[in-house]
Amino acid sequence: MELVNVEKLIEKYENAETTLQEEQLLKEYFQQADVPYHLLEYKAMFNYFDESSAERFTKTIPLKTNRPVWRWLSVAAVALIMISVYTFNSSEPSEQEKAEMAYQETQKALNLISQNLNRGSNVAIAGLQEFEKTQSKVFKND
Amino acid sequence: MKQTDFLNTVLPLKDKVYRLAKRLLVSSDEAEDATQELYLKLWKSKDKLHQYKNVEAFAMTMTKNYCLDQLKAKRSGNLKLVHSNYTDNNISLQKDVELKDSVSRVHELIEQLPEKQKLVIQLRDIENYEFEEIGKILDLEPTAVRVTLSRARKTIREQLIKQHNYGIS
Questions:
Q1: I need a surface site. Which of A48, A49, A55, A135 has the fewest CB within 10 A?
Q2: Residue B52: strand, helix, or coil
Q3: Does B80 reside within a domain?
């Protein structure tokens, strides 16, 4: 590009009247090595712009597609745990009660048996006394 | 907007979003965090994105607003990152050093500009947007964009000349 044209474009550029195409021309012009002394500042500027536009974002961008699914899964899991704990806890006291009732029932039954047994042994002892009385009578009579 | 649409239209903007964030936030760490945060937001609102005619302008506006909010939240000391990895073997060493120096000076000079001018320089001279697009992104009239841009360009050049002359004398 002719130096005269460059200077014209530079003037338009300073007034922000250049099109993108014209700015591209300037960019290309200032990429060459030899630039007149009075335009060195523009070389620095255009080189900086060029350099800056080459910068890239190198980190990864976390886009969590399955995030809501996981959230619902965790809610479901917590609910499941709560339900299982609740049912486990509530069934345990009823079993204990059942065992206690059975224990009391057996105790009653055993009491009944022992009472009857006691009564039976009393009768047996009384019978034995009667037997001894009669026996002594018989032996005395001898 | 479906997942594939998002990947095709919004994801390629990540470099532009990052560069704009870095222009405003200065530190590249913060710019990275901001980019990730912004993409999370965009991803969450992907069902609404089809309502916007220009998704790119919307994403850039969102970036601008987010970064300005961040700056407001804490106007504290940021890490400064200066680039000087310019390569050109055709110039003599003395000139080369000088040019390298003035390229990184441009970075510092842009950093000192008001936020609006920073944004316009970034969007026009680095991202090459049309004036109308910049107007949409920044919610400005295209003529106002031109005025701001002209002011910013002139300031950078004047400052460079000033420093250059100081260096010589």
A1: A135
A2: coil
A3: no
